[in-house]
Design goal:
Elements lengths: L8 H19 L8 E7 L5 E4 L6 E4 L11 E5 L5 E6 L5 E3 L9 E3 L6 E5 L8 E4 L6 E5 L5 E5 L7 E5 L4 H14 L1
Antiparallel strand pairs: 1-4, 1-12, 2-3, 4-5, 5-8, 6-7, 8-9, 10-11
């Protein structure tokens, strides 16, 4: 059986160009949308950043259900481009850390802490790093023991994908009420 596709050089170039454009569109990272809720998923381990409601430290845990609000974060852009507050849905506290220390990431009640979210797709497709400054050497890293600590921004465990979560304002209010009753 002979199949004659009758492909000319021009048709082949057009087909290849179309495929390249389609591939580039799939590989492009979506921008962070201010005010949306996300799960922070670690590239290396596939775990998610979760706040301990008692100690307020950040751990990497297996992804939970849609009711595991301690694993959800409201990301809101500040007046400075690419700097965001990252607020836990359950506690209402903001993500923070001290650069260059081996202390775990933690949350604070102060709204003044903004972190830089860097699109790191150049090195890891669809990934971001979260650091104190734009060119920071220290970024949020999921250590092998499951604790989020500041670490070299180039490490694979320092890269995160942002998984958009569908949640209503009422669910957020209910989560906060539950936290307040817990404490």
């Amino acid at each position: 059986m002979n199949i004659n596709l009758n492909l000319t050089n021009m048709k082949i170039r057009t087909l290849l160009t179309t495929l390249l454009v389609m591939f580039a569109a799939v590989a492009t990272t979506a921008q962070v949308e201010s005010g949306k809720v996300y799960r922070l998923v670690n590239k290396l381990y596939g775990t998610v950043a979760s706040e301990s409601a008692i100690r307020h430290t950040i751990n990497c845990e297996k992804k939970g259900t849609s009711a595991d609000y301690q694993q959800m974060w409201i990301i809101t852009e500040t007046a400075t481009e690419s700097y965001y507050t990252i607020q836990n849905v359950y506690t209402g506290r903001n993500l923070h850390f001290e650069s260059g220390t081996n202390q775990p990431f933690y949350t604070v009640t102060d709204n003044g802490y903004a972190l830089f979210i860097n699109d790191n797709s150049k090195y890891f497709s669809g990934c971001y790093t979260i650091s104190l400054t734009k060119n920071g050497n220290w970024a949020m890293h999921c250590a092998s023991n499951g604790v989020c600590v500041p670490w070299n921004a180039d490490a694979e465990g320092t890269n995160w994908t942002l998984e958009l979560v569908s949640i209503t304002e009422e669910e957020i209010a209910e989560a906060r009420k539950s936290y307040e009753e817990f404490n």
